[in-house]
Amino acid sequence: MERVFAEYYIETPYDVEHAAAVLAGEQSSGTFVSVPGETEELKQRFAARVEDLQLLDIADNPSIPGNSIPGKKYQRAKVKVSWSIENFGYNLPVLVSTLQGNLYEISQFTGLKLMDLEVPDSFKNHFSGPKFGIKGSKQSCGVGDRPMIGTIIKPSIGMSVSETANLVKSLIEAGIDFIKDDELMGSAANSPFEERVKGIMEIIRDNEQKTGKKVMYAFNISDEIDQMQKHYDTIVTEGGSCAMISVNSVGLAATKKLCDRGELVIHGHRNGWGMMNRHPLLGIEFPAYQKLQRLAGVDQLHVNGIQNKFWESDDSVVTSIKSCLKPMFGNDEICPVVSSGQWGGQAFETYRRTQTTDLLYMAGGGILAHPLGPKAGVTALQQAWKGAVEGLTLEETAAKHEEFAASVKKFKK
Amino acid sequence: MERVFAEYYIETPYDVEHAAAVLAGEQSSGTFVSVPGETEELKQRFAARVEDLQLLDIADNPSIPGNSIPGKKYQRAKVKVSWSIENFGYNLPVLVSTLQGNLYEISQFTGLKLMDLEVPDSFKNHFSGPKFGIKGSKQSCGVGDRPMIGTIIKPSIGMSVSETANLVKSLIEAGIDFIKDDELMGSAANSPFEERVKGIMEIIRDNEQKTGKKVMYAFNISDEIDQMQKHYDTIVTEGGSCAMISVNSVGLAATKKLCDRGELVIHGHRNGWGMMNRHPLLGIEFPAYQKLQRLAGVDQLHVNGIQNKFWESDDSVVTSIKSCLKPMFGNDEICPVVSSGQWGGQAFETYRRTQTTDLLYMAGGGILAHPLGPKAGVTALQQAWKGAVEGLTLEETAAKHEEFAASVKKFKK
Question: Where does the Ribulose bisphosphate carboxylase large subunit C-terminal domain start and stop, copy by copy (chains A, B) (predicted)?
Fold first, then answer.
């Protein structure tokens, strides 16, 4: 029988082998005493199995509250556990409950993080996965050998439909590939969803007729499920190509339902992510998280950015970008959405460390607050990426291009 | 315009007022430079507002990674923030993205936890909330002035439908009020969902005909949305009264969709909760969490238990029980599901600290592994609660009742 594998980073004041056995037990038979009916054969077939155990460093203090034992130190380790797929079939929420469920509650651990997971090949027959991914995203908006350049409508909230449409118009004239609603923007009195889609899509269609280029706009459909379906329909009717979902706020089941429709690229916003990831020894790491989102069918997923305005390290961002671009079942790479405080200056380090242009590079203020206007803002980003790919430094690129030079002057800290 | 209020527990090495302003800014206008179109009037109308700020203790070290400033200490504080409901309307996922969203990513904080929230009364016109809650749950299974006594099918996985049905039969004969699938149990080859419901409901209906008592069984419908709908239908067709959803694995949007059907009591399992709550300065506290689940319409919600086998403190469990039993819009108390290592011995402290019998008291091994059999296990739990309510001690209760005395002998540590 095929098995699902999961790798955890753990910390415990107990014997590590004992703690790993508790982990496996909780996530299969799961009670504090043996009960009638729990035969050895049954355990053999359904019990989670500890596959590997690697001791790491020892900490003096517990990373999160748990059982402390006077005089004991806290051993860290990597543990690999597996389950027969018989345990959950092809059921994404039950898979998540198995991989994450009550594990974080176990007092024997003073730290537990899901690092990565592996599902067997048979999953591809049951999960259609991302329909578009990075290839389909780039194709849809006519971008070839460079990153898609994107921006976010700011201010996040408060603009009328016509103000937003005017902004979209100037962004399109500026040469943008991708625009998105802010995740705080749903359907508001000042900007009802349907009107916003109509107002914006008219401009996008006009531009497509004139230039052949269809700019991708990610409308935020995050809502209850019937509303999401209705909003999805509106985008399709108006000829849009993309919908955005705040995947953590909406949840996996509803996200998958919308992804399964397959008519629109799904832009997955991971807001709320910090809660699940910021502590080094609690929660889930991105390589595991993005696989769950891929099983749901998300095409684009936020990864933060190099030298971002948030707390995340560049190393972590690089790992995230790479994990999106690693095939899961073959030819199904998803689009890493690089954003947060980006203005073009980070293109050099981003390219140096990832060696790819298969990404969506988002700049908010970096475009709209460019001293020479939004068009120069978009041009500057393209110049930065061209320079980065050609192996130029930031300074060399700035010396060649006026628009990028103005970005450097305004945004470089 | 009505406003939503949220209370955060924060930690920062910066000036707290500045950090609070960053929080409010990120969750409304949200970019790192001012952009054209962001007028003062617009800010006034849509900006989040810092309502209150209370300084607490000072820590020497940051609780989670963030900006550290050499020589600076880390001030903790409570911050109350509010938003106009114009910002998100009556959209639960966008509300969550606003309350939690990117906040956890902000490097100015070395700790941030959502403690509580308040929504205006108008929400009750848009969210039908829990249809049954604690009152409807007790009424459905004919329990009056004592807690509902429940148990979980164990082993969690691996039993055939007929084995499970036999176990259910003996539990019903033992006098149980409530039984649930384990959260790791979905639809498996050895126990297909539809067959399981049919096999179990036949026994429950039989018993109802004979005795008039309809035992509540929470079938785990957690799955993708179409499957959940189908499974819900099966339970309704077979005359069942309850469905269980792993709310974190399934997500808010799909959970609400199922709750909105209103034909079954929804048992909300919070597995995965530890990830969101275990760190004292990261994530969300139960009083806020249960309100979001109530807006989705969940009727019963896990709260762990006194002297549980997990890491959580008794104080936290007591707060959780009380928050479930506090009306949100009036007469809408939900059912706290007390479980984890419970065997009856904890009834005394649970009652002493909560003064309520409005709860579902779950024991797994405490019933099935009772030395005199499951019937004695259920009886012992009822004896324990009767003793607790009458003001007896554990010892006094054990002296009066043979079954409870046997529990004490086997389970008391």
Answer: 134-410
